[in-house]
Design a protein that fits this description.
By secondary structure, the chain is an all-alpha fold. It contains four helices and no strands.
């Protein structure tokens, strides 16, 4: 039987991985994301492999993290531009 249609899609494991790598780099992103969000490493690993569904609240929390990173990088970029001859 088909799943009923929903108004929105769930975040996929691949989408989570892409965001995690963008935020923290390819090496230890799962551990860093787990620590930042207050989850266990294995929980994030299970989301990243698709063993467990990514919780519905996670995209909102990740949005906040990405927005903060953008602000920080924008400030750093402005400073670098000031230092250019």
């Amino acid at each position: 039987m088909d799943k009923p249609p929903t108004d929105r899609q769930r975040m996929t494991a691949d989408e989570l991985t892409q965001i995690g790598v963008a935020l923290y780099g390819a090496t230890h992103w799962k551990a860093q994301l787990a620590r930042t969000l207050g989850y266990g490493n294995r929980t994030v690993q299970r989301w990243a492999t698709g063993s467990w569904d990514v919780p519905d609240e996670l995209p909102g929390r990740l949005t906040t993290l990405v927005e903060r990173r953008i602000v920080t990088l924008t400030e750093k970029l402005a400073k670098l531009k000031e230092l250019q001859p």
